[in-house]
């Protein structure tokens, strides 16, 4: 039986900080760039950080999208010492990975290394068999092909990423940023993850269960709703009834509901729950407030209601969440 992932105390980093990203002929430049940006840049502002290397999965010239040629730091032998292995996309859903690569991934997985796939990289992990019986995601355009070829995987096609402990998968393209920040948050805590996000000029956190695709706001309503959303974020402790929101948006309730869902991909009630959960998470991580006070400040009405939404959405209680992510300033 494989041992659970070794974790240091909250914020101290993984037991093995070595990150190795695969490089292959036909490399997905964007996904590989995310791996470098998130894990490979020097971070002198942090006392502890990952070490990063690139691993060639095959011999010969390695070409990347956009006319680039890539020279890796080494070959598959680098996976033997990796704590985390990243598969930054793959050259095609129909392209079978080399047997030597699959063997190396299985060996890394067996000794406890974490395996991450970005976008189509999930096909490599699937071919290695490490996703059998697990939940996983990929770009929405590949979800059906993945389900047909690997029926033992529980495909979740409508989420940004899936964390199965040792094996983590992200949806298409930019969702790799969300998965990377999630892992950084898991390893080094929310403050470090937030600093990395700010440096990359991306949102500090998008929950893995968020939908991959959200329709863009209608041009004539985008600005008005944007102002309303900011106002709602500043008044999460208030009830925020539908009639009040529609009145502020200067729309009928029916029109407001339609415009809101077109702009955000969810109803006002669902949006408020997600925002209140986000605010509650910040307070659990960065304050010593009791759960009851946090529930009141975030507009849940009661601690029991907040616990219900935490368990339903995050599969964890507020107390357990605080225990896992909160750390000293």
Describe the structure.
There is one protein chain. With 329 residues, the protein is α/β, with parallel strands linked by helices. 43% of the residues lie in helices and 12% in strands. A six-stranded mixed β-sheet has the order 2-1-5-6-10-9, sandwiched between helices. Strands 3-4 form a two-stranded antiparallel ribbon. It has a two-stranded parallel sheet with strand order 7-8. Strand 9 (161-163) and strand 10 (167-170) form a beta hairpin. The radius of gyration is 21 Å and the shape is globular. InterPro entries: Class_I_gatase-like (IPR029062), DJ-1/PfpI (IPR002818), Homeodomain-like_sf (IPR009057), HTH_AraC (IPR018060), INH-QAR (IPR052158). This is Transcriptional regulator FtrA. It comes from Dyella acidisoli. Residues 226-324 form the HTH araC/xylS-type domain.
